[in-house]
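Two records follow; treat each independently.
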Amino acid sequence: MRRLGGRGLLLGLAAAAAAVVAARWMGWWSGRAGLRLFVPEELARYRGGPGDPGLYLALLGRVYDVSSGRRHYEPGAHYSGFAGKRLLRWSSVGDLRVRVLENLSPAGRDASRAFVTGDRSEAGLVDDVSDLSFLEALALQNWLAFYEKNYEFVGRVIGRFYGEDGLPTPELMQVEAMASRGAEVGRQALQEKQKFPPCNAEWSSSRGSRLWCSPDSGGVSRDWAGVPRKLYKPGAKEPHCVCVRTTGPPSDQTSGLPALTNRGDLDHPNLGEYPGCPPLAITCPFPL
């Protein structure tokens, strides 16, 4: 997964994405009258326990009152570790399972990075998320939208993502730029899945394995079944099985031009046949 590094590139990405995301995020980023600013040590007091002043959590520097979901967040509840801390967790983007972050850092500390890298050392327990993948950044923004919709926004945390004036820092702009790119990556992945749906697969100790295509294999409903092929993706160690359309013009042919072939996507350069399987067979058995 592509990573972003260096402050110059950070600002470049942020500037490139600014025009696209400004309208959606201006309401979240702009100052509000009476906006409350927290320091991390203060936020850590809002755990929802006896004598605590409230039940808050923060995500990317934005603080939400989650009292209405007390049964989920109060001490001893399933998500109690999130209250008074930064919330980053597993999520899904379209059909892609994305490992995001679950910050279980001690009070007054944001250890978000540790839940991406797995580094639980003192050096790893930091809040630097500048090298998130595109899809991880997008998933964080999706969770931010969830909390914005379902819980009361109460303020911002002074630190990595917001300055003492309550305005966003370059680090927050980086996350937004990465999320914008993540949305593009997600769309590309969905388009590829529509073009090359995954095969059905099964294995048994008595019969061996079998790969086959159907009009709904891979969770993609369509009016063709296709035939199994190996799809070789740049950077991938192994090919994976996809279903390939066998009739009509290639998917990447410009719309409106006469069809040059009637072989669908069979001639795509990243595809390979399975040895021992007839080229147009819908099912490829591989006995033991």
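The next record belongs to a different protein.
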Amino acid sequence: MNAPTEGLHIYCLHERERNHRLPLALRANAHLYLLDPRQRIIRAIALIPSSRFSEANNRLFDAEKVRDFACSYLEASSSTSVRWDLFGIRYAMQRLLVGIAAGAAATELVHRTLIDQNPDAELHPSTKPSLSRYGTPSTGPDTIHYENHALHYDQARRVPLWSLERLCRAHLDGPANRRTSRFRPDDHVPKQFQSANSDFWKSGWSRGHMVPAGNNKHSQSAMDETFFLTNVVPQNIDNNSGYWNLLEMKCRQLAKETYDDVEIISGPLWIPEATDENGKRFVRYEVIGKNDVAVPTHLYKIILGRKGDRLDLASFVVPNRPIDIKRPLTEFRVPLENLERIAGILFFPRLDRNSVGDLCATSEGSCDLSLKHAGWIASRSIQTARDVTSLEREWRRIDAQGFLDVVPGLEEAYMKKKREFEAAEH
């Protein structure tokens, strides 16, 4: 599977810059490098004379064509091999040297595919890459890659448009602890387009992960990266801790019990809901903080499960407000094509949809939210209350979300915790 849009770029370093940015072992003759979205050099893939790139300094190239060329050449070569992972930016090389023939071919290809800060030119043939001497407008990188997730960041709304992760059993256990993680801006996003923690303070909205921290227990660094604000939207706190949390737990259950792995895409939506007396529809949403972070009206989640050669999919859209946990998940199910039309995003563009099954029809309860998980959420909110005031607040939230109707023993747990606080006061 692949990210909704490609984010890998090929970057050419000018002769006078490379000594300042390359590891010593790579300073000799290599000038064409693969970089991840944070612009860290990964490794040279070709040895190209620097004179051939004198005019290409600090230019971005069509990643898809160069990657496909590199893969096809290296697979056919007896001297070098390459392996690409889910997001296409990590690879293992048996040898570094590619040879003069590869360098010449890559040079010709790069010159043919040179584009001016416009990685979508291939999708839009009418685009004229050389129209501006100074670069066409940029909305930032198509994809920002992290250790175990990738996303497209909306610089105008200061939220991710989509966040993609791949979840398997191995990710669900490990030493990672979210208590050591901190919400923070990603400094690789220009400061003028960042959101800040202060935007959320006293706003009435929580910081809602699109890729959950709990899906990365295998790695502390992967968990920490889910706390970048590039992965966060303003989310109703009851939705975040209630229904949406149950949906995230359902994804973990599917990865643990049903599928070999699960790919999940989550993100915000802004859907017309208001209609005036003339029948006109409007999209109205709040913005918070000095950075005007956009509050979505809805959230979506696409789940693609793989079991051997079998693929199953389901997609859901939920309102960004409190939802009674007794409401069935299937009530919020939408066809993927409808979601794509609303979001303006083509999800899993290389997926053969004729071969994909219905995730909700694979087994009984495959799209039912777990009462066991609901009980864990409600009990945890009671036990983690810091004082009587926060306990009463959590109790009202538990009642409003419908937990009392489906989880036994909550009232006893609440009264026990309340007595503990009262005893401590005396």
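Discussion point: Residues 1-127 have pLDDT under 50 and may be disordered. How would you locate this feature using only the token line?
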